Sequence to fold (135 residues):
Amino acid sequence: MDDLIQFLAVMAALSTGAQAITQQMKKRIIFLHLQAKAKPNENKFDEMYEEALRRVNIHVLAGVNGAVLAGLAQVHPLQMLKLTPIWAGSSGIVANGLDYASAGVLVAYGGPWFHDLLGVLRAYKTQLKTVPPVK
Fold:
């Protein structure tokens, strides 16, 4: 149980950091079209395409930011859960790169889930400590 709580805490922290960096990059990077347009297009399909492209770019950027943060913090998410990935037998650079990429994917798409699950596990653990055992 402690391994799961540690995993969720680390992934929630990475997710928060990647989200904060992504929010700052959204304001400053113009060429990826990450900002919503002030004036909508006349063609509805063009507007839907631009919105979808903007969301994809934001998710990719969040994944890259999560992978970079995982690399800087030396986070190996599958090893934290005591799982052995299929790329564990490859060379160190490739294995580490794939570990960090998997952390980036988890951070980009699992951020809200990590925060919610961590809150549930904390409440459960607190409840276990405060409730006396039944005799």
